[in-house]
Amino acid sequence: xxxxxxxxxxxxxxxxxxxxxxRELAKEWHPDRAGEGGAARMIQLNVAYELLRAExxxxxxxxxxxxxxxxxxxAGRGPGGxxxxxxxxALGRELLDALEPDEQVELITPAATWASPSTLLAVTDRRLLxxxxxxxxxxxxxxxxxxxEHAEQGLVWPRRTRARLRVQPRYGGxxxxxxxxxxxxxxxxxxxxxxxxxxTGRNPT
Length: 205
Description:
It contains 6 helices and 7 strands, in the order αααααβββββββα. By secondary structure, it is of the alpha+beta class.
């Protein structure tokens, strides 16, 4: 998707502009007001807004070069060449380099972890993939859905305007907690992870 078009913005818009546009559209399309049709639209608005939040997030590293799709039937050469340009910019070079062939990215959001208050979290069709942006080494981590025991999300007190996501690996190891998430985003990520758990009968890659 083009997140600017979804939010009715031009490409010179700032993150503050995106926030204002998102809030106005969210009021209009909230399912309590717009009914069932509003739910699908709200998902689109949430994904677009998180893309712009990730894209405007300060980061280190080399800029992302445009995808080269020549001779690839649209699949694209180079890291993440099969993804939309806005999503590639939001991911940045290190997460793009960590993608597997044809790995689809469903959502990208800034977050915080105990290891790094500046974390960029991506949800793909097969795993959680994240970048510890201020870490010195081992900056990119991942956890496949098939290796996940469970995921849960909850609101953070006292204001309850932010949420955290806790994810437990199946085979021991420490539980990962992603905080400073918007509640709608935490709920969406939890849904993606739970849909990919082995107990659901799916067979993720």
